[in-house]
Structures are given as structure tokens and as C-alpha cells.
Design a protein that fits this description.
Structural class: mainly alpha
Number of helices: 2
Helix content: over 70%
Distance between the termini: 11 Å
Number of strands: 0
Length: 56
């Protein structure tokens, strides 16, 4: 159970920061606040899928 909580915390933090960074680089400062949640959700899904292949 601790691995699930740790995965959620790390995945959420990483995907939020990376999503903000990608939205800013791709769309600029004017649309970053509107679009970074989309990038964050996509990246969080990728982290969860990738974690299925890791031995936890």
C-alpha cells in the first residue's frame, strides 16, 4: 500500500511540474494556465502505465 501512495505522490508532483514546463514551452505564457492540466493528466497516465512495468 505504501508503494501506491508513493507512486501517486511522485507521479502527481512530477507530472504537474513537467506539464507546466511543456505547456509553457509549446504554447507560451498566455495559455500556460489553461493548458498545463491537460499535459499533467497525460504525463500522470504515462507514469502510471510505466510503473506497471517496474518491479515495485
Amino acid at each position: 500500500m505504501n508503494n501506491v501512495i508513493l507512486l501517486g505522490a511522485l507521479g502527481g508532483g512530477m507530472s504537474g511540474a513537467a506539464g507546466y514546463f511543456l505547456a509553457e514551452k509549446v504554447h507560451g505564457n498566455e495559455k500556460v494556465n489553461d493548458l498545463y492540466p491537460v499535459y499533467a493528466v497525460i504525463l500522470f497516465g504515462l507514469v502510471v502505465i510505466a510503473s506497471k512495468f517496474l518491479p515495485l
